[in-house]
Amino acid sequence: MSIEMPVNLATTENEPSSKNPQLLSPKAQLVQKQFVQQQLPVIYATESLAVFQKPAGLACQGGTGVKYSVDSLLGSVDEFAEYKLVHRLDRGTSGALVVAKSRLAAVALTKAFHNHTVAKKYIAVLEGIPQYMQGTVRNPLLYTGTKTIAITAFSSEREIAAAKSAITKYKVLKTGTIGEAPVSIVSVEILSGRKHQIRAHCAQIIGCPVYGDKKYGGTANSMLCLHCAEITIPVSTHLTI
User: Fold this and answer.
1) What range does the domain containing 38 cover?
2) Are residues 140 and 204 in the same domain?
3) pLDDT tens-digit profile of 120-143?
4) What pLDDT, in 10s, does the model give residues 141-191?
5) Non-local CB neighbours of 211 within 8 Å, separated by 6+ positions
6) Domain with 87 in it: what CATH number?
7) Domain named Pseudouridine synthase RsuA/RluA-like: which ranges (predicted)?
8) Which position among 71, 78, 90, 213 bears the catalytic label?
9) How many domains does the chain have?
């Protein structure tokens, strides 16, 4: 996915960088807001939070090789500049992304995600057909710095200390083919939020990598077929949802 900033927001002596929204003219702010809303449509909002539809290919935060991110796009518009990410989706994953509108909301939402009281459901296309049409994967996960490993048997005390518990529920909704290759459309619910959890559990335990997930043994493809379809946040007396 390639994102191009509006031409009239290019940095010049008369048109400051969109990284400084307070310096943009009202007209430029309007153009920038429209651009951001095209890239990140709002699918739900309250006084406390907004849920954006994140496209595949857009990183949540900046880093090496990242030109634009959800953070930088929101930060380029006055109205969204104070919004805070409270969880993340992988760069290749599309779908619902929750953002807090205030510091108070960010604290409450971050706590809810950290305590795993937020339910997240995904739709994925898997390469192959799982042996069981539904099930629960409980293998702990160990992130090595570049990849997540699903543990089937611990090899050391250090590994035990570093691994994190992870629970993934899945159900096959439909099977079919892409070309001549068998594929499955599955619903996935994660009861924890570990890095690359779905991708690691599907590839290494279920035996069916997410379609397009080259990192975890899938076929190289321009898009990772993983979409966050539903997020359920418990109502709190401290937060309007």
Assistant:
1) 7-115
2) yes
3) 999 999 999 999 999 999 999 999
4) 999 999 999 999 888 888 889 999 999 999 999 999 999 999 999 999 998
5) 124, 125, 126, 127, 178, 183, 218, 219, 221, 224, 225
6) 3.30.2350.10
7) 49-204
8) 90
9) 2
196 and 153 in a single domain? The answer is yes
Q: Is 71 a catalytic residue?
A: no
